[in-house]
Design goal:
The complex is a heterodimer of chains A (433) and B (633). Chain A has 433 residues and is an alpha+beta fold. Chain A has two domains: 240 residues, D-amino Acid Aminotransferase, Chain A, domain 1; 175 residues, Succinyl-CoA synthetase domains (Rossmann fold). Chain A contains 13 helices and 19 strands. In chain A, helix 5 crosses helix 6, helix 10 packs parallel to helix 11 and helix 11 runs parallel beside helix 12. The two termini of chain A are 37 Å apart. With 633 residues, chain B is an alpha/beta fold. Chain B has 23 helices and 16 strands. Chain B is elongated. Chain B starts with a helix and ends in a 23-residue tail after the last helix. The chains are: A alpha+beta (433), B alpha/beta (633). At the A-B interface, strand 14, helix 9, strand 16 and helix 13 of A face helix 5 and helix 7 of B.
Chain lengths: 433, 633
């Protein structure tokens, strides 16, 4: 996956880590803590650099979703703004993480990570808005002098400027100066900040970077709220710039279980691609499909024919994985599949599918699958499984034959098909049997 | 008439203007990175379709030392040149207009950027997955500005059946034939996914008459060229009668195609489908499929795009599973209207089978030109006489260097008493100072500035009948005497009659009263550990006699080693004929060579450490008995 959201804490940390390189004429005081519980927050008191915890605080969940203000999830006042102390913050955190929270967007989940910062009274300062996004042909920089929680209501005050791909420093400033919103006390400082911001956004491979609001008081910059996505394919270039960066699971989505994590680790280590997401462990149809494209088509077809609720998993393997990798992947899948029988007593269905491969050696990858089937055949028999196979590509005949012979010998019901059968037809066959 | 039409169809591509067809039968590529399988697949395709010239003109391999690679073209092999830089390759082959970029994701952007600047290169395909989006976008814009075609990243590429295909697309020859990818049909196919490209090409061959051109644009968000770019070109190609677009959830590329249909830039029938309808059931961030594939808004969902395509009059099946019917329907209609004619399938020359495949399948058997019975390097780990190296290498295995020698020289592990004896021999013969001819030679060569190996070899080259050869000689002659049942006295006379010194007898200074402790050492060891020492006993009888003539005619170390080696072999149960074979093949010399190499190398390294200048023998140490001018000496 390329564009991935990062936490506000991380975004601000990256700003601070690269600040002097980009924002020479400005100052930024990065004071923030990223915690999972009230106790974790309390444990930071007395530590170096955490003196500010004694003062007024502002707390928000930091779970890569926005509109926290509108969702009532920005805590900076009990009776008055700025009266939230450490204890109050800790209690608020613990209250929020008990039970699930539902957002206005409908997303639902457990709040498990929070960002705590010093409360900065900036009533007098204007709240500004700035955002940059990686567009199709150019980047788009959006500016407003009326930022803050109600930005969308003031969207007509927003000005956008397209920055062409190879814009040099001069062109950049020109374009920005022309787009600086009206009504600013110091338009030139604003433009300078915007230009620095854009270069930071561009050089550090952000795909999306929004600070709403921020304030500029003299040379002091306050970044009050931040939403960011980075291009994770640039990780290998950005190791020093980003520091160790974690991509959190989107809010509302189940956090990866141990099996999914294990597959992800294998994927990271390997030149091949190995992906697994468990959707419904009680689902009746499990898929073991080669290829990113084919795996989506099988999922589409299953959802069409029997409903997405019965789709147990989504995943794929591709890029010529080794026999050991395919075996481990299949083992993981079969393990999940055979943990418990179907509550309605139906036989489970295993779809071993794929398109006609261009260069993956089908016989070789099937060796791993065959090995795993041998290891799990007893469990497969005890929950009751029917296997449907469809695959084409180099050595597919040998692969299909080996798979069929193995399954037959192990007493596992199986039907195998080659390229002459339409790719997704085995789903129809499996469901009509 | 059908035949002429067919030939017309196949050859017509070369007459079409360059901007209506992606490749033709003369198209040649530079292949960046020496991926031999992929290159061979391209050349196999060339053979299949009867191309005159290989589709790969040159290979670029920055780390390769080789200048050429061997590949099959037709029934024989050809050499394809390998260059270190693409500039060199492009300069040598200015008519190669395609560059196939198989660089890894770390280097792919740079390779593409630089290749776009090469004047002769017009089309670049990028295989790598994981190129940073900014880079991909910049390359797309650069290509556009230069009017060049970029396919990918993260793709298997493109194919123009009957003309050219990139690398692995289409897979095996069997699949290419089954999917009719060896000759042009009437459909133009564009997909994101490479796997599904192959799948649909097959479906189109089964339900219609195949494709005339096909491109997989790759799964990344910023693909170098989009659906509409290729479909517009296909619209201009008279050979293509209908189009098939396989889109995906994510992005808005498909809408640009819809616009082109709506405003009449595309008039040919278009079959379209977006995969990823599954995403409608999962509202939060499950990543289905490719890097580019997630809907940022409602517009980008598969459902919206399928509905929009249907509304625009494109042929949209109810699901992926219904493709065969809809492809067949569109094809049949165009065929009935006479828009698509009948294809007379060309005769295909079967591709000769690779000998490797045939061997693996047991269809042929091939003799070998070489034999080895001591070690095997074919498996996971090399073996010495069947034992993996890791089982003998480290101390905890209990194997010593003597054991390894016996495994590799005699194909079995000798018992400890024997292998330890051999180690003693090695240690004993390891060196004898710098004055002996071999060591001296080695030092002289080292001082000439030569490398270790050259210096070692010059030392070894002096080993023979006069230096180190006494071990061999002693073994031969004492054995001879013993086997002829000569008494010690008779043997001594026998040798005197022959005018030979007895090899293994005699030392510069050592005597019975002042024994050579090296000899004492190994003979005592042998007495204590060998099953028998008959030849040693015989030699010592001889020594008793010879030392009566002169003190120093003792059994020397070469003699002792020679006779004890024979005793060792006898003790191990070898037949006399085996021992004959050992001696004749030079096994005893081999022990001397192996041991003395240790010393020679020591001398060489010593010279290198001392860094003395080139050796020149002093004049005053040479008798110059040379002719005077005009006269004899």
């Amino acid at each position: 996956m390329a564009q991935r959201a990062i936490r506000e804490f991380e975004g601000k940390r990256i700003f601070q880590h690269n600040w002097s390189r980009y924002f020479g004429q400005f100052k930024y005081d990065f004071q923030a803590a990223s915690v999972a519980s009230g106790d974790e927050l309390r444990a930071l008191v007395g530590g170096d650099g955490y003196e500010w915890l004694q003062g007024a605080l502002v707390v928000k969940p930091d779970m890569v979703f926005g509109k926290r203000g509108l969702n009532g999830l920005v805590y900076y006042q009990q009776q008055q703004p700025g009266d939230v102390d450490l204890e109050a913050a800790a209690c608020w955190i613990d209250a929020r993480r008990a039970g699930t929270s539902t957002l206005l967007s409908g997303q639902q989940g457990v709040l498990s990570r929070f960002i705590v910062e010093p409360f900065v009274a900036h009533a007098g300062d204007a709240e500004y808005y700035i955002a940059a996004v990686l567009g199709d042909l150019a980047d788009v920089l959006t500016l407003s002098a009326q930022g803050g929680i109600n930005i969308e209501e003031n969207w007509d005050r927003v000005s956008s400027v397209e920055i062409p791909v190879d814009a040099d420093g001069e062109t950049l400033l020109e374009l920005i100066n022309a787009a600086v919103p009206a009504g600013l006390a110091e338009p030139q400082r604003f433009a300078l900040f915007a230009s620095d911001f854009y270069r930071f956004f561009r050089d550090l491979h952000f795909a999306y970077l929004e600070v709403n609001p921020f304030s500029l008081a003299g040379e002091r910059v306050h970044l009050l709220d931040l939403v960011a996505k980075v291009d994770d394919t640039a990780s290998h270039l950005m190791e020093d710039r980003w520091g160790p960066l974690y991509f959190p699971t989107p809010f509302g989505m189940k956090a990866p279980g141990p099996e999914e994590k294990a597959i992800k680790e294998m994927d990271d280590r390997s030149g091949a691609s190995l992906k697994l997401t468990v959707l419904n462990p009680q689902g009746i149809i499990w898929t073991l499909v080669a290829g990113g494209g084919a795996s989506v088509v099988y999922a589409d077809t299953i959802a069409d024919l029997i409903g997405a609720g019965e789709l147990a998993n989504y995943g794929e393997y591709s890029g010529n994985p080794t026999t050991e990798e395919t075996c481990q992947y299949t083992r993981t899948l079969l393990d999940l599949m055979t943990r418990s029988p179907d509550p309605q007593g139906r036989e489970k269905i295993l779809i071993i599918g794929g398109a006609i491969a261009n260069f993956t050696d089908v016989a070789k990858t099937f060796t791993g699958i065959i090995q795993a089937l041998r290891e799990y055949h007893k469990q497969l028999q005890s929950v009751g499984v029917r296997i449907y196979v469809r695959r084409g590509g180099p050595n597919y005949e040998v692969g299909l034959r080996n798979l069929k012979q193995t399954a037959d010998a192990l007493g596992l019901p199986i039907e195998v098909y080659g390229p002459e059968t339409h790719m997704t037809d085995i789903v129809r066959m499996a469901l009509s049997a | 008439m059908h035949n002429m039409e067919t030939n017309d169809m196949i050859h017509r591509e070369t007459l079409l203007p360059a901007d209506t067809v992606l490749f033709n039968r003369d198209t040649q590529a530079i292949f960046w990175n020496n991926h031999q399988t992929a290159i061979q697949r391209m050349l196999d395709y060339d053979t299949l379709i009867g191309r005159e010239r290989p589709s790969v003109a040159a290979i670029v391999s920055p780390t390769s030392g080789s200048r050429c690679g061997k590949f099959f073209f037709g029934t024989s092999e050809i050499l394809l040149p390998i260059y270190r830089t693409k500039h060199d390759a492009a300069a040598a082959y200015p008519r190669a207009s395609v560059l196939l970029n198989f660089a890894s994701f770390r280097r792919a952007s740079r390779v593409t950027r630089e290749s776009l600047e090469l004047p002769g290169i017009h089309t670049i395909m990028i295989t790598a997955e994981g190129m940073p989006e900014r880079h991909a976008r910049a390359l797309k814009l650069q290509a556009r500005a230069l009017g060049k075609i970029l396919i990918g990243p993260a793709t298997v590429g493109a194919i123009v059946p009957g003309a050219f295909k990139t690398a692995n697309i289409g897979g095996t020859v069997e699949n290419i034939l089954a999917s009719k990818l060896h000759r042009p049909g009437a459909c133009g196919l564009v997909t994101r996914s490479g796997g599904l490209f192959n799948e649909l090409a097959h479906t189109i061959a089964l339900n219609a008459d195949g494709i005339a051109e096909g491109i997989a644009i790759g799964g990344d968000r910023f693909a170098g060229s989009g659906f509409v770019d290729h479909l517009l070109r296909m619209q201009r190609n008279p050979q293509i009668k209908y189009l098939l677009l396989l889109g995906e959830v994510g992005g808005t590329e498909e809408y640009r195609v819809i616009e082109a249909v709506q405003d009449g830039r595309i008039t040919k029938p278009v079959i379209g489908w977006c995969i990823g309808t599954i995403a409608r059931h999962f509202s939060t961030g499950v990543q289905f499929g490719h890097a580019g594939a997630s809907a940022g808004s409602d517009l980008e969902t598969a459902d919206s795009k399928n509905a929009a395509m249907r509304a625009a009059g494109m042929h949209v099946p109810k699901s992926f599973n219904d493709f065969p019917e809809i492809i067949s329907a569109v094809y049949q209609e165009l065929h009935a209207e006479g828009v698509i004619g009948d294809i007379s399938e060309p005769l295909v020359t079967p591709l000769p089978e690779d000998i490797q495949t045939a061997l693996a399948a047991g269809r042929v058997r091939k003799g070998t030109h070489f034999t080895c019975t001591i070690s095997d390097d074919r498996g996971e780990e090399a073996t010495y006489a069947g034992l993996p190296i890791s089982q003998v290498a480290t101390p905890d295995t209990g194997f010593g260097i003597g054991d390894v020698i016996t495994l590799l020289w005699f194909k079995r592990r000798y018992p400890q008493w024997a292998s330890e004896f051999l180690e003693s021999v090695i240690k004993t013969v390891a060196d004898h100072g710098p004055a002996v001819s071999g060591a001296h030679n080695a030092r002289v060569t080292a001082r000439a500035g030569k490398d270790v190996i050259s210096a070692l070899v010059t030392g070894l080259l002096t080993i023979g009948p006069r230096f180190g050869g006494a071990i061999d000689g002693a073994a031969q002659w004492f054995r001879h005497g013993q086997s002829e049942e000569m008494s010690a006295a008779r043997f001594v006379d026998y040798m005197a009659e022959k005018g030979r010194f007895i090899p293994g007898i005699g030392h510069r200074i050592k005597s019975l009263r002042n024994p050579d402790l090296r000899v004492t050492g190994i003979t005592q060891y042998a007495r204590a550990h060998f099953p028998e020492t008959r030849l040693l006993d015989y030699a010592l009888e001889v020594e008793q006699l010879t030392t009566r003539k002169k003190d120093n005619l003792i059994l020397n170390v070469d003699g002792a080693v020679g006779v004890l080696m024979v005793d060792m072999w006898r003790g191990l149960g070898y037949e006399e004929s085996d021992i004959d074979q050992f001696i004749e093949s030079g096994t005893l010399n081999a022990f001397f060579v192996l041991g003395r190499s240790i010393g020679f190398i020591g001398h060489i390294l010593d010279e290198k450490r001392l860094n003395m200048p080139l050796y020149r023998h002093p004049f005053d140490d040479i008798l110059y008995a040379v002719p005077q001018q005009g006269g004899e000496c």
